[in-house]
Amino acid sequence: MGSAALEILGLVLCLVGWGGLILACGLPMWQVTAFLDHNIVTAQTTWKGLWMSCVVQSTGHMQCKVYDSVLALSTEVQAARALTVSAVLLAFVALFVTLAGAQCTTCVAPGPAKARVALTGGVLYLLCGLLALVPLCWFANIVVREFYDPSVPVSQKYELGAALYIGWAATALLMAGGCLLCCGAWVCTGRPDLSFPVKYSAPRRPTATGDYDKKNYV
Prior knowledge:
Layout: H1 2-26, E1 31-33, E2 44-48, E3 52-57, E4 62-66, H2 75-101, H3 112-147, E5 158-160, H4 162-188
């Protein structure tokens, strides 16, 4: 039952991390306008993400525009799009693999094969976390490098947006959940006796008087 608890906890963490990764992918706040020197007081703030850019006025009005051309985007944005979407899809596949190998399901017969399927699901979640971590760190490195680059005008400097922090938290949850899934599956490897106890009760049979038999069948 200890390994089953690890699998359930790991799956919950992975699902939360998957949701956070989807949120980070869709949010336009990958980089936010930096307020420096004479740019401290400004009438608008610019957000840039993978799919759109938004301009927020000081009055609270926000206007967003989806990028018109994919080929016109920078290399880092195109790569971040591809890697992030791939990570989201990989997590979707890992969910079904993990559910098939989980001890609480009957998709695969209990035994070493079932444990190996669960282990595969945990490994897929680990790969998903690593795959999502690459564009996040790459994008953050570009933002930081341009921030400290004196040749970049102050008005064009950006800071790390909230989407990057959400993405980092999501990757941490995915990798932590993947590790728990791997640990739970590793405990079950070679232990076919480790599974949820299932008890079946026979249906009550009517007696000669028409009443049901009160005996309990297990």
